[in-house]
Design a protein that fits this description.
Blueprint: H1 2-40, E1 47-48, E2 79-80, E3 100-102, H2 113-116, E4 122-125, H3 131-147, E5 151-153, H4 169-172, H5 175-181, E6 188-189, E7 205-207, H6 215-221, H7 223-229, E8 231-234, H8 247-260, H9 265-281, E9 285-290, H10 294-300, H11 307-318, H12 330-334, H13 342-351, E10 359-364, H14 370-380, E11 384-385, H15 387-390, H16 393-400, H17 403-416, E12 419-422, H18 427-438, E13 444-445, H19 449-458, H20 464-474, E14 500-502, H21 504-511, H22 518-538, H23 569-573, H24 575-581
Parallel strand pairs: 4-5, 4-8, 5-6, 7-8, 9-10, 9-12, 10-11, 12-13
Antiparallel strand pairs: 1-2, 3-14
Transmembrane segments: 20-41
Keywords: Carbohydrate metabolism, Fucose metabolism, Glycosyltransferase, Membrane, Transferase, Transmembrane, Transmembrane helix
GO molecular function: glycosyltransferase activity
Length: 583
């Protein structure tokens, strides 16, 4: 029995001796492969944003430092790379812009102004708010004059509001071009004429109309007064025209906004210098409209993570407005109504593919927290400019005392940018979004604040890759692509759908093109459907289109020759509060 046991041991020994070289060869190959991987793998060079682990907008003097490897203790590493990373799209152009174009010519059913405008019927308007709110008022005033078949007096600009700019119309806009371009649509005069030879000038009756006043509203409320008094001035003319109008009136809106309203030569020349200087620095640039003023943040009612100091400072500002009561600072943020912080804007842009070499032009007023607040954004994008950094004091001197002229410079530089980004949904953001759609769908990024808010709260518990992927998903439908928003949703000045036409021939060429492009086309169409569905769910700022209150009835007796009731509670009780928001 011992003999058999010895033979069995010897048998297994010989088998193992033959397998040993094979096992050694496999082990050696694995070791060589592992060594090659260590040599060829790129060394990590990301930036660890230490202060991103702090609460929302916690003011910190720390900059972007190389972080400690947290993988050893099982914590996800949130490191912001300096590069934008790979992207499945061209970050400087809109994917389908070649298939759409702006179209605002009148139809054959729109009669010439000479056929419909009787003598001695004059409409004057007084605008309200900052430059961009006044721009919407001027645009709607031309359309209101057309509805009433009246001659329009060149609009009066607001010189007494929060923005305190003494400029008149001709100092900001080219008044002669404005009159001549619209000469077939509305008769426009520079001032009210005199009654007959040597008579007194017409004295207009003053009144207000409700916000979102429809064609029927103007015909029933304003026209009877106009027929009786011959001259009417509509005061505080902001958002006093309905969103839904006939096709020809909507196209007239576009002709006014996108063609008739040209800035004066001094403004255009200075703005072109600024654009040229940005182009000299880089082939492409981003323009960021950053509204982060203390008053703006106080009004928002949001908490930005600044601790007791922030609560005290913004609380003191809020107490100026008796009607402003903030009970739950988290509620507006959950609903996407809080402006993104500068840091959050920077993180969003990096996740969308824009690296640290990108040049950014920032249009902003006073930033709450000053340089300390801007530091994280500047660390992400060191090529950071404003009109004050690329122009001399002497060049800007003619504009310094006039907020609307300074805003006009920013408007042009932002409009000319390759990509326009905003952290808010104010008037400038809306008008530029509509304008950029009309002139070729240039990329226009507005944050999906409702979804991004949740993401920013949880970012410290995820890797940068997961964070960036979520940002790109949430921003689908908020990038300025064609068909992102259904016709009729939101303000017409932001979504001028009636004035955007489809180039059917170009689309046919695309659809019958080489087979290799088919996958991309299908993905594009799917993205359009998904983005539209996402907009309905996520976008908090799209208001319902015209809910006509009882606008069709005539005005009560003695309603003209005095200021009527403003149909907006904020503006009637807190005029400064509304002016603050009317950029």
């Amino acid at each position: 029995m011992a003999f058999h046991f010895q033979r069995r041991r010897l048998h297994y020994y010989h088998r193992f001796r033959f397998l040993l070289p094979l096992i050694s060869a496999i082990s050696g190959a694995l070791l060589i492969l592992f060594a090659l991987l260590l040599v060829l793998a790129p060394s990590p060079s990301p930036l660890d944003v230490n202060h991103l682990h702090q609460p929302r907008h916690q003011h910190s003097s720390s900059s972007f430092n190389v972080g400690v490897d947290d993988d050893a203790i099982g914590v996800p590493v949130f490191r912001v790379p300096s590069r934008g990373g790979r992207s499945d799209r061209d970050i400087w152009t809109s994917r389908n812009s070649n298939f759409y174009y702006g179209c605002s010519n009148a139809t054959h059913k729109f009669p010439n102004v000479d056929e419909i405008t009787p003598p001695n019927r004059y409409l004057a308007i007084a605008t309200s708010g900052g430059l961009n709110q006044q721009r919407t008022g001027i645009t709607d005033a031309v359309v209101a004059a057309r509805i009433l078949n009246a001659s329009l007096v060149v609009p009066k600009l607001d010189q007494k509001s929060f923005w305190k700019d003494a400029s008149n119309f001709s100092e900001i806009f080219d008044v002669d071009w404005f009159i001549s371009f619209l000469s077939k649509d509305v008769k426009i005069i520079k001032q009210l004429p005199r009654r007959g030879k040597g008579g007194k000038a017409w004295t207009p009756s003053t009144m207000r109309v409700p916000r979102k006043c429809s064609e029927r509203c103007y015909q029933n409320r304003v026209l009877p007064v106009l027929l009786k008094r011959h001259a009417v001035q509509l005061n505080k003319f902001d958002y006093r025209l309905a969103n839904k109008l006939s096709t020809d009136l909507q196209k007239l809106r576009c002709r006014v906004n996108y063609h008739a309203l040209k800035f004066t030569d001094p403004i255009q020349k200075m703005a072109k210098k600024l654009v040229h200087r940005m182009r000299m620095r880089s082939k492409h640039y981003i323009a960021l409209h950053l509204r982060y003023e203390p008053d703006m943040l106080a009004f928002s009612g949001c908490y930005y993570g600044g601790g007791d100091k922030e609560r005290k400072e913004l609380g003191a500002i809020r107490r100026r407005w008796k009607t402003l009561h903030i009970s739950n600072p988290d509620k507006p943020r959950r609903h996407g109504r809080c402006p993104l912080t500068p840091e959050e804007v920077g993180l969003m842009l990096r996740a969308l593919g824009y690296g640290s070499d990108v040049h950014i032009y920032v249009a902003s007023g006073e930033v709450y927290g000053g340089e300390e607040t801007l530091a994280p954004l500047k660390a992400l994008f060191p090529n950071f400019y404003s009109k004050d950094t690329i122009a001399t004091k002497e060049e800007l001197e003619p504009f310094y005392s006039f907020s609307s002229r300074m805003a006009a410079l920013d408007f042009i530089v932002c409009d000319e940018s390759d990509v326009f980004v905003t952290n808010n949904n104010g008037n400038m953001a809306k008008i530029l979004a509509g304008r950029r759609r009309y002139f070729g769908h240039k990329p226009t990024i507005r944050p999906n604040a409702k979804k991004l808010y949740r993401l920013f709260l949880s970012k410290e518990n995820m890797t940068w890759g997961a964070f960036a992927s979520s940002v790109r998903t949430y921003q689908r439908g908020f990038m300025g692509e064609p068909n992102e928003v259904r016709p009729g949703r939101g303000s017409f000045h932001e979504n001028p759908h009636t004035c955007i036409c489809e180039d059917s021939q170009a689309k046919v060429k695309r659809d019958v093109g080489p087979r290799k492009y088919g996958k991309g086309i299908n993905e594009t169409r799917r993205d359009e459907v998904e983005s539209d569905a996402q907009n309905v769910e996520d976008d908090p700022e799209w208001p319902d289109t015209d809910e006509d209150e009882d606008q069709s009835g005539p005005l009560d007796n003695d309603m003209f020759n005095r200021t009527g009731v403003d149909y907006d509670a904020v503006s009637s009780e807190e005029p400064e509060l509304e002016e603050l928001l009317s950029d």
